[in-house]
């Protein structure tokens, strides 16, 4: 069976941090310790090879989490870097399902780190019918 790539674009533009003035980013909405969950649809009952690519700004710590459908991804999810960075992390295939799915970012509350989540794409492969 042939497969093809598909993806969903999720827009955040949200600032996570200990306070609204923890990072000078007036163009990003301050949301505290977690982004709002963003929904995306998967049109197939058998998504495979999933991963997420994220634009993040000014991350200083490794211990922040990416949450897909209410469950945190394993391992460290976002690497530190100055300014805008583009990172990728894998998603266990069983985390995604046909229909509505959600993705959210959570800040490590033991950290003083402040950062921005920009645009995010969730990728998977699906059968070609």
Automatic annotation (TrEMBL):
Where on the tree of life does the source sit, at the highest rank? Answer: Archaea
Query: Which InterPro entries does the UniProt entry name for this protein?
Result: DUF7383 (IPR055807)
Q: Name one Pfam family in it.
A: DUF7383
Under which name does UniProt file this protein?
Answer: Uncharacterized protein
Please report the organism this UniProt entry assigns to the protein. Haloarcula rubripromontorii
């Amino acid at each position: 069976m042939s497969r093809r790539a598909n993806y969903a674009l999720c827009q955040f533009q949200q600032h996570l941090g200990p306070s609204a003035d923890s990072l000078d980013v007036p163009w990003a909405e301050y949301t505290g310790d977690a982004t709002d969950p963003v929904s995306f649809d998967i049109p197939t009952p058998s998504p495979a090879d999933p991963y997420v690519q994220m634009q993040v700004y000014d991350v200083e710590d490794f211990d922040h989490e990416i949450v897909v459908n209410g469950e945190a991804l394993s391992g460290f999810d976002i690497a530190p870097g100055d300014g805008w960075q583009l990172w990728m992390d894998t998603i266990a295939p069983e985390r995604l399902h046909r229909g509505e799915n959600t993705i959210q970012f959570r800040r490590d509350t033991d950290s003083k780190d402040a950062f921005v989540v920009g645009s995010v794409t969730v990728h998977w492969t699906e059968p070609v019918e």
